[in-house]
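ingest -> fold -> write
write: protein_1
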Amino acid sequence: MDAFYASVEQRDRPELRGQPVAVGGDPNGRGVVAAASYEARAFGVRSAIPMSRAVRLCPQLAVVRPDFQKYRAISQAIFALYREVTPLVEPLSLDEAYLDVTENAWHEPLAMTVAQRLKAAIRDTTGLTASAGVAPNKFLAKIASGWKKPDGLTVIAPGRVEAFLHQLPVDALWGVGPVTAARLRSIGVTRLVQIRTVAPDVLARTVGSHAEWLRNLSHGLDPREVQPHRTAKSSGMERTFSTDLTDRDAIAGHVARMADAGAAWLERREMFARTVTLKVRYDDFTTITRSHSRDEATRDQRDLRARALALLDRSEAGSRPVRLLGVSVHNLTDDERPCRPDGGGRPRLPFDERS
């Protein structure tokens, strides 16, 4: 969907149409931008930036508090349209999905025609626009979907894949964020196809275990199938506080409650977790994570809480003011037995730190 939350608000509030709009939190506090209209993006307003900065970039910006119940209802209507065409729908978020339309209810031989009809159905049903990417695999379709936003449709036929790849910068690669892109540029790689020419040992030193995967993507190869019932890989919650936390007991209380929420989520899903991760963002925006993993999975509330609090002891929270806290559970399984040595689960080091 195109600027989904902001587009919904512009649809429902005529006075916002054609105006720069940002959906998110209070600009006078620590609100962040959840979505920005295309009019706002022209001023540099983007999702995930502080709302206070967004207002400085665009003083005439209309700030709207999010209504996620409304967005979820619209999303459900859109996904219902998808599933009328194919059962192979893999949600990525409320406003994005992969569809495999090799076989479809309309018996359309061309995926481009399916995309055109779905875009029209979405507009007729919701009054909103969507952009579509049509390609032989998920990696290429994802890139194509953002190629001509808003209301775009980009088709990469098999015979055009190589020409399309030569147009792309290296950070178009799935999994390549700013840090990895900077590492690749440090070895002279600025275009996606240049990944192919890097010696295997050099690429491995630069991007680690992702080397083979990125090399395949540089050739336009992506064997992943559309998975209509994706298993959750993690769950967690985080909170940005209106004022910095400095009291250690208050910080520990928030961490404990977040760990309890993770245990309750696991209980509802009848799942277990092997890894607990703590996220701390200090007042200077330095962000650290601390993780603890065991071979044995659990959903025991006391255990998860104790591990989260132990991770907190490995941070500077309290001695340094805290802006954000988060606790999440990872390495999920429906079996609480230890990882199997035959590949049913990889033993991990007791502590893993990233900063």
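write: protein_2
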Amino acid sequence: MITAIADYNSGNLRSAQKSFQRMAAEIGSGEIIVTADPDVMRRADRIVLPGVGAFADCRRELGAVDGLFGAIEEQVKAGKPFMGICVGMQMMASIGLEHGRHAGFGWIPGEVVKLQPDDPCLKIPHMGWNELSQTPDHPVFEGISKGDHVYFVHSYHLKPENPSDLLATVEYGEQITAAVGHDNIIGTQFHPEKSQATGLRFIRNFLQWRP
């Protein structure tokens, strides 16, 4: 089995690669490949889209790699398991409102909007550890509970139109989307590769997930 991590100049992928390789080795789930090749995406059994920085920049870089956006979209529509991380999760939305108005994949109807905590003492970006205040009955959250801590670095989050697409939340002066998904797609605003035991469990669960 091949898990392809999309490389589209969105930042250092080494941490994500190492975490996925560690979990893949533990459970014998095959090869982890970091690639920008659309043909490799088509051959992969599951796809991971990481991302750091602004929505607009990531959308531009993803579109700049010839055929990559279309290959990911094609394979996700074909039913392959998909995970978006941080801005990679935000790309699952209809629209991102950071530095203008930019189209995402449109798999999760909703907009990516700026955080607006009701406490002026809370700084933006939301950076560091926060505890999950809502977790779903979903295979990728097996063994992960309300109160477990995960790591965030972001100033925007995805607000889904459909409540059923919102899987997990944290509190930071408002309810913040921590995870979204439906069918064969899952996305996390937090960084599982930086979230120690909880994040590794999430990655392990994704690699074993059969939507």
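write: annotation protein_2
The chain is about 25% helix and 35% strand.
Residues 95 and 111 are 5 Å apart (CA to CA).
pipeline exit 0
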